[in-house]
Specification:
Elements lengths: L1 E5 L5 H5 L14 H8 L3 E3 L3 E12 L2 E10 L8 E8 L8 H14 L6 E6 L4 H9 L3 E7 L2 E7 L2
Parallel strand pairs: 5-6
Antiparallel strand pairs: 1-3, 2-3, 3-4, 4-5, 6-8, 7-8
């Protein structure tokens, strides 16, 4: 059974142990960095403060991936941003990425304050581009911190 669990003092170490393939390391920050970052959020000039929420993805109790949502209800352009989606190298190609994306999008859809969701990815990450486009994300043509920005209108 696939499930998503919040990161806690009981599971953070097993989630930190998850790794992407060597050729994917430049696509995503480490889970350790992400968990640390979530404790503080980030204030971005011109946008305001983003609160971050990390989760582990499990299949039959085995950790298989990591994801992190962020919210900033004051930012007019988009109020939700998918900061992280990673699937452990031993578990890739099994649909976990799409499962995680759909779970995050349902969380955003359930929150009426979120009108638009953003995501960004490396320009040469075709797997991510294809997955996000299949879920309705549209590239804006902008590059932010070296990554392609794509948005999904929820309402």
């Amino acid at each position: 059974m696939l499930e998503i669990r919040p990161v806690t003092k009981d599971n953070w170490k097993e989630l930190v142990a998850l790794k992407v393939r060597d050729d994917q390391k430049h696509f995503v920050a480490s889970n350790l960095y992400s968990i640390a970052e979530s404790q503080f959020g980030e204030t971005i000039p011109g946008e305001g403060h983003w609160d971050m929420f990390p989760y582990g993805m499990y299949d039959e109790g085995t950790p298989v991936g990591f994801l992190m949502l962020s919210y900033n209800y004051e930012f007019a352009r988009f109020q939700g941003f998918i900061l992280r989606l990673m699937v452990d190298d031993a578990h890739q190609g099994k649909g976990y990425g799409k499962f995680g994306m759909n779970w995050m999008l349902e969380k955003y859809r359930a929150d009426e304050r979120v009108q638009v969701v953003g995501i960004s990815y490396e320009p040469n990450n075709e797997v991510a581009r294809t997955l996000y486009a299949s879920l309705g994300f549209q590239e804006t043509g902008e590059i932010v911190d070296g990554e392609v920005l794509a948005l999904l209108n929820l309402r």
